[in-house]
Amino acid sequence: MIVDVLRHPTSQDLAEDVAARTITTLVQRIADAGTAHVCLTGGGIGTASLAAIAERPGADAVDWGRVHVWWGDERFLPRDDPERNETAARRALLDHVAVRPDHVHAMPSSDSCADVDTGAAEYTRELLAWARPGEAVPSMDILMLGVGPDGHVASLFPELPAVHDTRWVAGVHGSPKPPPLRITLTLPTIRSAQEVWLLAAGTEKARAVRLALTPGAGPWQVPAAGARGRRRTLVLVDDGAAGQLPSDLGRPSA
After folding, report:
1. Is domain 2-196+239-252 annotated with CATH 1.25.40.10?
2. Cα(137)–Cα(132) distance, rounded to whole angstroms?
3. Cα(43)–Cα(148) distance, integer angstroms
4. Portion of the chain with pLDDT greater than 90, in percent
5. Domain ranges, ordered by start, for the chain
6. I want to staple 92 with a disulfide (CB 3.0 to 4.6 A). Which of 35, 51, 199, 254 is the partner?
7. What is the DSSP string of 71-128?
8. How confident is the model at residue 212 (pLDDT cuts 50, 70, 90)?
């Protein structure tokens, strides 16, 4: 399993690189397989990366009608709430490209289902329905994850039960980061992805990035340490987030 650390001078450089890599990967995957599955993340750098995709002239090279869009986690709030990852992704990217509505697989909202556990079960059924032959759930061609200062990814927080959940999707109760109710992909689903991209910007993420790349680190204390792709894992960081890494770990992004 390849773990490749790519360093960028600034968060904007990081977002631009994520955008370029996303476009290239989607074009190639559609050419190879006819469709592509991409799992999006929220947060500052995640949303900035989506906006950078929309702004790149090369975005027109993607046949967006063949792209399936998923999310790694979601806040259990009403649909269109500005705090939902879906809302931010639509404004940054999805409202600007020709993705088919039935290919946008948003996680359930608090006004569409009774509770987070029901929502997790609904999203599991959605994943199962779109799995390719030979897959249990869609093996995401790109699965983006922001890294939190505490080492969390998606809504898998250190030492909470969802970290060890073996289902494809889990409801989260009592998240230490508001809101307390969330829906998240679990590590088995994350690890089924072809490529996992861990995104981190800012000095407040430096410790978490270091711990996530420390040999022997476990996902119970550092969930990001357990987020790995089947073919490769990219750790895309700006200089701030790379501040606690050894100087010889990683390379400048081309």
Report:
1. no
2. 7
3. 9
4. 95
5. 2-196+239-252
6. 51
7. ESEEE---TT-TTSHHHHHHHHTGGGS---GGGB-PPP-TTTSSSHHHHHHHHHHHHH
8. very high
